[in-house]
């Protein structure tokens, strides 16, 4: 192989440039040219195929900085429709004209779906990323546990449901233990919880902090490092009586409560609490909004103004119970060491996979107590259920304690290998050196997009 393409698709994460850097570093060693495609799959629909040569003379361009969040290539939520054969024909011709012999897609479950039709035209492999940590399998046979029934109210015409599992959960069986981006997102949410806590303590308030993750509760689970009092994950509907009792006990004891909720939390009927504003992105992912507010409404039904007055507080319940969304800060900024290191390894692995002749395959991270974290290649089809559908990974019941409303013992065992040495010395030093740099006051922000724009080339030029 002489030339390959690389693109970043779906929502960004802090570790995308690190993955690209890993791939480019490996390609440099093997004397392979890497063309970066601008704005994910969107670029392939453009007859001019805007792209950047990422390693002229087999050296990474200086803009490719693995310690910088986001993606220098840009990303979009556009996906390739397998039914649009004409469009696929055009994409194939464009990539051939550019001399692209293999493609690396950096993405999550939506990207994995999107790359399937392309894999029938040229070798395509995936390097995983998502802050949601939902690209993976709790164990290899998990896709076989889905059943499907007809449901005209669903966009796909079908409803999918999990059957009960007999599998003994084992951390070493997890396919793609953790996705690059997750660790940095947890750093941000943990910091938010720490900061919300002290203000809730001072003002005797109940804080509900909403974190991202769609229908997967991994981000909520990881916030345990910030010691919230209660963690609610989308996989398990909260028992409102138990929740009320726990909040009351904690409030009486410590005069403040911090609750974390995943944005996809559901009620006892499985309906999303925060789905009032509901839209679907092109990959079929539902955008969720308002979970914390909806939970607050439920608590306001149970904790009256009188309750807070009896606690010798002058404020109303509405003032005492407040919500905060951590929001997109979870997705942005400098990636911490864990993310940078494993993102780079996974990126490098995808280049080797293309060279080994793999197609429609995913570079995954495995964990074993003997070998620690290591990368492997995994067949993309093994992520699919029998109807070809890829399901977002959810928190396995063994990892969450619904009575304690926190990670179970096994949940803690899951988190520890990721986070024990996740922060590098340079991460702390970087903050010390740059946060209050005088230059920040004097100079405007310089966007990577301005530099990359100067490097963009087009097909036929
Ligand atoms: O999938 C990543 C993610 O950050 C989710 O956690 C969140 O629901 C969604 O993307 C937000 O998407 P957008 O940036 O398009 O609003």
**Percent of residues in β-strands:** 15-25%
Ligand types = 6-O-phosphono-beta-D-fructofuranose
Q: Rough shape? A: globular
> How many DSSP-defined strands?
17
| Gyration radius, rounded | 23 Å
Mean pLDDT: 95
Largest sheet properties? 7 strands, mixed
Share of helix, binned: 25-40%
Blueprint (SSEs and pairs):
Layout: E1 3-8, H1 16-30, E2 33-37, H2 42-45, E3 51-53, H3 85-97, E4 103-107, H4 109-115, E5 124-128, E6 146-150, E7 158-162, H5 182-203, E8 206-211, H6 218-222, E9 230-232, H7 240-254, E10 257-262, E11 279-280, E12 286-287, H8 291-302, H9 305-310, H10 317-320, E13 321-325, H11 337-355, E14 361-368, E15 372-379, E16 400-401, E17 406-407, H12 409-419, H13 425-434, H14 438-442, H15 448-455
Parallel strand pairs: 1-2, 1-4, 4-5, 5-14, 8-10, 8-13, 9-10
Antiparallel strand pairs: 2-3, 6-7, 11-12, 14-15, 16-17
Residues 11, 130-132, 212-214, 263, 287-288, 331 line the site of 6-O-phosphono-beta-D-fructofuranose.
